Amino acid sequence: MRRMLIGLGLVLVAWIAGGAAMVAMAGPFRPSGAYVNIGGRKLRLVCAGPANNGNGKPTVWMEAGAFGLAADFAAIQEKLAAKGIRSCAYDRAGMGWSDPGPEPRDSAAIVADLEKLIAASGERGPFILMGHSMAGLHTRLFAGRNPDKVAGLVLIEATTPEQIDNPGTARFLGPFTAVSRIAAVSASVGTTLPLYYAGDRIGLPAQGRAEKRHAYVSGRHARTAANEVVNWPRSAAEARLAPPYDPRWPVAVIVAGGRGPGSEANDARRAPERASIAGRFEAVEGASHTTILGETYGDGVVRGVEHVLAHLPPAP
User: Fold this and answer.
1) How many CB atoms lie within 10 A of CB 272?
2) Residue 297, SS3?
3) Distance (Å, rounded) from C-alpha 50 to C-alpha 32?
4) What is the mean pLDDT of the chain?
């Protein structure tokens, strides 16, 4: 037993050392975007496309899902910029390259930061809100608190606060919370370092892929992400108290293929689209929960943005 423990210890040390060597050999790394001061703290903001709404189209403001950061939207931002559509994505406090923020990291804290970031960024609203996965809670709370800043929504595999009552959600949250805590510990002690070269699981362009890999090996990023997941029920309760989306806002709900309109999860996800006077639903065939944001399958998300743009009222 003693020899076995020693052997496992040596394997662990070699694993960590190998990962550290990989990161060191990669050389210095410069993340994209700019750092915006929100009052003693800075958040990383990455915007792409025509500046200052030069073509009259609203900016798409992006909110990443659990463990996500601005890099998750790198492929989508490229695709939108090619069509002359401006978009902004950011790292939430304590994630990626943003300074940490006050705890708990629930929707109330996240939306408060987002409100400050938008105010300090100089970006003009109203915006098309885009949320992936758990970010559906944050978009709901933000829209409820800031209806004047919302033009429409694109919800990608996005949860709703009402889903917390679903027994399936409860069965998912328990294991996901446990895995998130394990990931936080693993990244903090360095055991995730060799994942630096494991790929991004989305299908991102080079810069976004590099940023995502750096996030894999960040203990702070993983610990903050786990804190957000632990606070999922609290965030759902906060979002649920917010007013529902205005039915006049055009809404696109985009999900991964293989889970069509009749699935239980998608019935819940489709509630905002069905309540909208201009709703769109698309299941992107072949996509997964993550690859739906990537270069291969991201066109479905772009179609969702184009739907919202096409159904906005004429500019005054």
Assistant:
1) 23
2) coil
3) 17
4) 86
Task: Report pLDDT digits (tens) over 54-99.
Answer: 667 899 999 999 999 999 999 999 999 999 999 999 999 999 999 9
Q: How far apart are the first and last CA of the chain?
A: 76
- Cα distances from 187 to residues 12, 15, 52, 97, 237, in angstroms, run 13, 13, 38, 16, 29
Q: pLDDT grade, residue 28 (50/70/90)?
A: low
Q: Which residue has the tokens 């210890």?
A: 9
Residue type, 32: S
CA 176 to chain centre: 16
Tell me the one-letter amino acid at 153.
L
For the entire predicted model, the pTM comes to 0.89
Closest CA relative to residue 168, chosen from 268, 251, 254 = 268
CA distance 273 to 122: 30
Residue 151 makes CB contacts below 8 A (sequence gap 6+) with 58, 125, 126, 127, 128, 249, 308, 312
Residues facing residue 48 across a β-bridge: 87
All domains in the chain, ordered by first residue = 45-310 (3.40.50.1820)
Cα separation, 284 vs 257, in Å, equals 4
Q: In this predicted model, what pLDDT tens digit does every residue of 136-154 receive, in sequence order?
A: 999 999 999 999 999 999 9
